[in-house]
Here is the input.
Amino acid sequence: MNSPKILPQTPIPNADLAVRLKQLGLIVTSQGLDDLLARASTQRWSPRQLLEEVTRTEAENRARRSLERRLAQARLGRFKPMADFEWPWPKKIDRALIERALSLDFLSPGCNLILCGSNGVGKTMIAKNIAHAAILAGHTVLFRTVSDLLAELDLDSPAARRRKFRFYARPALLVLD
Here is the structure.
């Protein structure tokens, strides 16, 4: 009985390998393939170490791109961080409640959070900080002014309006200012 012959595989040129890696979604690895292979060779990495490095860099890149995408989609704009909030300035503010809201406890049970107060006390700043905290925690967020929301919902077609409602129902947190 003849045993199957194992044909030697010809190495794939780095340029072709980079293309295949990119097709698999391994963007960072495909872009830095020559450098990665040089480091692996110089430092005498085992196959496992090479795979761990590929996994680590790709996971970091995906996390970074996800964060950038969620930040862009939220449309938070510029805002002052909570570290700069003047707690003693608004006469009546429940600091413990605001800090609890920043912990995002209200998201998992799907509760609403309403910030009430007169103009200029920091409601928008607090809302944007809560939204930013949610994005950093991995949640999807949309921030819109009520006037922008109403303008976007002013559509002739009921089907288009339903699509817009579904769009606004999708994120984990919808902030209306």
In short: The chain has two domains: 14-73, 82-176. The first helix runs from residue 14 to 23. The first strand starts at residue 141 and ends at 144. The two ends are 78 Å apart (CA to CA).
